[in-house]
Design goal:
alpha+beta
Length: 199
Amino acid sequence: MKELGRRRQDRGSPSPVKKQASCGLSRQAATSGRKGRFHVKTRTIGLAILGASLMLTVALQASDAIGIYTVIEKVVLEPSDATPERIQIWGAFALADSSSPSSYAPAQRGYVYYTCPQGQDSICRKEWADLKSVAGKGIGVGFGRRRSPTGRVRKTDEKVSSPDPYPIQMGVVRVEKASDRGAETLEVIDGLKQALKQR
């Protein structure tokens, strides 16, 4: 009878060793499953962030908010350098195409003529000093803002009169290499330099 009882007991419950082994396997499987899922999620999030960054870079390179690019030959401040109220900027100019986020009109030789908007004297003097500092050096600069008035480019033989309001928007931006504003903008600057060579 004792033997039979032992056999029944043996049949009724698995051995402790087997129980531990099965427990160990299920824990390991669960852990490895979790690790696998975590790894996949991390990789997916990383790829999503990288993709978003690349899209943002392309978007930034595809648009340019500057209103007018120029290579300046000379600057004339009126009535004097010490207390300027108006500025003549002579050289080659490319105006932003208002219907496009990145295009510029072909280079034009001539000059732009501006007056300082009322109450903006200190900003005008600072930016005009920046513009004068690059005159005759073959350095490309940009100012004004796309889709905002930037004035008109006048022919070299047009009488100096009726200045346009100076566009205080983005400050003066220098462009000397592709990393400054992108390769497309550098092409615009190269076009302005070529226009100045054609007499």
